Amino acid sequence: MSEKRLSYLFTTFNTFIISGVALFTPILYIFLIKLGYSYTEVGIYLSVFWGASAISELPSGILADTIGQKQIVILSCIFRAVGLAFLVTDQFILLIISGLVTGVAEAMLSGSLT
């Protein structure tokens, strides 16, 4: 497969992933409230998510440069799937773990795009 075709497929794949996340994010807050979490717990979840994402941003970019963007995108998808699996629980500690894992996944995807 040519380099140009691979680049096109990679860009298309990332566009679909980012679009899915962008569509899910506004609904997430309502979903967590409907699961029974308080506004404070949802706020803590979001803080953990964005904190983990910010802290993981630089290392994930370096990792993408080291082992390759394709591998990081695949790892990001795996991390996101695991994080989303923890999201549908009513236990607060699992919600926090979900925030950590999906935050790292977000940074990994972002780090692989540069």
TrEMBL record:
GO terms for molecular function: transmembrane transporter activity. It is found in: Cell membrane. GO terms for cellular component: plasma membrane. It is a multi-pass membrane protein. The chain crosses the membrane at residues 7-32, 44-64, 94-113. It comes from Staphylococcus microti. It holds the Pfam family MFS_1. This is Quinolone resistance protein NorA. Keywords: Membrane, Transmembrane, Transmembrane helix, Transport. The keyword Transmembrane applies.
